[in-house]
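Section 5: illustrative case.
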């Protein structure tokens, strides 16, 4: 979801949105907020720009609710396989996945939430770029 706000404090705005959603929906919804400048940085810092796998690949970005502890970067990188790689940068986990028919991805959003210990929401690279383009308008 894209929107404009005069609120400069992201934490304050996140809590305000969460409170309103809970009131309107009747249950808690965790909000993960990124500014247009943060989206620009996320796209610019793609750690897989130069990485090539044989065959079709897909990049995903998991947006984390908080900045994880420093040791998490090493832990996630150590989980790399021949078909999937993870890189942590700020509050995002970038996932490069080789697309193999009939093979279920190992690094799902639920897996990342469990490993990192916080809420996350994932989007594919095309969606991240579309969000950035829409935010720039």
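Designed sequence:
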């Amino acid at each position: 979801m894209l929107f404009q706000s005069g609120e400069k404090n992201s934490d304050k705005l996140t809590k305000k949105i969460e409170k309103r959603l809970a009131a309107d929906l009747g249950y808690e919804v965790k909000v993960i907020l990124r500014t247009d400048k943060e989206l620009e940085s996320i796209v610019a810092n793609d750690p897989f720009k130069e990485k090539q796998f044989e065959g079709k690949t897909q990049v995903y970005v998991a947006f984390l609710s908080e900045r994880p502890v420093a040791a998490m970067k090493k832990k996630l990188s150590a989980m790399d396989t021949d078909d999937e790689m993870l890189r942590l940068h700020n509050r995002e986990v970038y996932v490069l996945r080789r697309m193999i028919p009939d093979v279920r991805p190992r690094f799902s959003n639920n897996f990342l939430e469990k490993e990192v210990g916080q809420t996350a929401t994932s989007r594919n690279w095309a969606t991240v770029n579309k969000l950035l383009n829409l935010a720039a308008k």
